[in-house]
Amino acid sequence: MEPTTPVPELEKIEELIETNQLEALQVQLANVHPADIAVLLDELETADAVTLFELLPIDVASEVLDETGSPVRQELVEKVADERLADLLDELPVNDAVEFLEDLPDEVSDRLIGLMEPEEAAEVQELLRYEEETAGRLMTREVAALRRHWTVDETFAYLRSLEDAETLHYLYVVDRENRLIGVVPLRQLIIAQPDATIETIMIGNVVSAPVTADQEELAELVSRYDFFGIPVVDEENRLLGVVTADDVLDVLEEEATEDIQRLGGSEPLDQPYFAVSIFQVFRKRVGWLLILFLAATLTGTVTSMFQELLEVAVILTVFIPLIIGTGGNAGSQTVATIIRAITLDEVRLGNVAAAWSREVSVGLLLGISMSLVGIVYIRLFFPEAGHQIPLVVGLTLPAVVVWSTTIATLVPTLADRFHIDPAVISGPMITTIVDATGLLIYFLLAKQLLGL
Fold first, then answer.
1. pLDDT digits (tens, 9 = 90+) for 255-264
2. How many of the other CB atoms lie within 10 Å of CB of 132?
3. 93 and 162 assigned to the same domain
4. Domain limits for position 314
5. Which residues partner with 231 through β-bridges?
6. How far apart are CA 212 and CA 205, in angstroms?
């Protein structure tokens, strides 16, 4: 593509569409980067977005299709002819076409694959045979593979003949059985002598990923080694393809989205938001909501156990929201920090004691701070509480905060040890548990200090 031009203003685009100046619109869009056009599509009304999309050349439209958000994609699938969509998928790298198709209903996906060119359709179907969220599903087969006996000159001639290689940052070397034996960084090839052989300049120890590797493992490899791509191999170390860094970035976004949804107490959506029916969203949320509902009944149970205490010291009920709110918020802060540390492999079962010690120390400092503020607050605004109630609240707050940080540290770490996603042990669940146990601490301290 030629150098990009500034993105036209949204109002100008809408005006050209409204006045049917479509040729002028094409001129306006010439040399605008596909990613910027995708942003425009997201901002336009549905009908205008489809009109604009239909004006794009096929090579630009394919890239725009890959960049658009889920609402626009859904509209394009519904409004654009299947034949054109299939042509656009033919233009995309195979792994990007697979990513687009896997978000569609099976009948739509099958229909579009049937309209694609036979060779591209076969490659798409081959990748779709691999499990979702694995290296096999994410990889592209369009990879440059060199032979060890080639000279640098011969290698450049080979590279010039390629049209569809996904990345040339790394050039992989294979033997006669297509087994991966080395890698040549492009920079090394450029500075090598023309008659040097690939074997003399290649790096023998190649970091690769098995085709069955989970996408999180791929993201970890790219992050650890700062690679632009990771070669994918089968059980016999034969080169199957490569997963590039841009695809790994999509994985990181997807994993972060799943964790955020789980932290909110919901099963993650496996399709774009607007592609999921209301019933599917309901089904994803109702299970966790029922679990949290049942867990929340513990709070009522604890309160009922100390009904006589509350009847004697009614003022205690005023500070229940303060106690459970502080404990729940402290637990949420801790669990977010610990889950992130687990994801980065900074916290594991082997060093959980050190992590717990740190969090308890922080929790104690936070609890004391909250305690001092709480005592001042009660003395100023609730003088009828006397001297003992501020003492009860002042002692409860550090105990509850330390307890909540303990729960929020140990539970996710143990979950990770047993190969349960720590995000599943979500903030709402820990908050609900801390609410009930925090009240128990509060009432027991009150009963002891008030002599009731």
1. 777 777 666 6
2. 12
3. no
4. 277-450
5. 242
6. 20
